[in-house]
Design brief:
Blueprint (H helix, E strand, L loop, with lengths): L13 H15 L13 E5 L5 H12 L4 E4 L12 H10 L4 E6 L15 E6 L5 H15 L6 E5 L6 H12 L3 E5 L14 H7 L2 E4 L15 H8 L3 H6 L5 E3 L22 H19 L15
Parallel strand pairs: 1-2, 1-3, 3-4, 5-6, 5-7, 7-8
Length: 304
Amino acid sequence: MHPNSLLTIDSLRREEIIDLLNDAYCFSNLYKDWHLSTNGPIANLFFENSTRTHYSFASAELQLGLKVEDMYPEFSSLTKGESLYDTCKTFEAIGYKALVIRNKQDEYFKQLTNINIPIINAGDGCGNHPSQCLLDLYTILEHFHRIKGLKVAIIGDIAHSRVANSDYQALKMFGADVTFSGPEEFKREGFPFTNIDEAIKSSDVVMLLRIQFERLEGPMHISKEEYHQKFGLTKQRYEMMKENSIIMHPAPVNRGLEIDSDLVEASKSKIFRQMTNGVLVRKAIIKRAFNEKPFSEKNSDWSF
């Protein structure tokens, strides 16, 4: 595997994560118009539907001056039985310099070890979502200027969430106190669970997760209305939050299910800010993939 690939958050050293976050910060101010020394090309291979991740990567790529190609699986040789490996090897052979891939299979990248161009994992099954994790860290740092010592509650469909998995690894690495809440059927082994009301009252960050209906083997055991009352961020629970706490959500949002629709753009909500920050972080990830050195400027206001 190419050394500048990004497959999982725990494949990065702490210092590498800090460099990526600092580069993202630089893209927000000093280096807004910075371009890569090459124009690529780069290809986006999305085997699952996506709006935010797909098009924020595309926006980041275009802003960096890259030539971009979106591959649509239904119009490719995958429909003729071609393997993912042969598809990626083809892109490598015809001159593409990096690939951004989302796939429904957990750890799909294990079959791509002989691909010699960088692969950026845009989400694998229920496993990993490193770019979402990095933009979540960035959003938390932007508000609190630190991660160490913060209390973070991640609430919802933990069992099927690659975001919960990646965020848990990174938040622990930087010293946050992380807890989880949600229905019994959505628990994940090794993840500490607590009562939702206690979690919301005590947390600095309340992160809601979408119920991933497409991954459920059958219907939920409770109705959507009952779920919202028991495990959603209602207006009543919003009033329980700490004064300086924030709401996060990787989106798409099921309004009125995991969060009251009126709270999506409430004063504590960072949901759309996460999307803005996603472009900055993905520019940093692509910059690293193309072997550009980290910017020397640092954000001295952030404590790691």
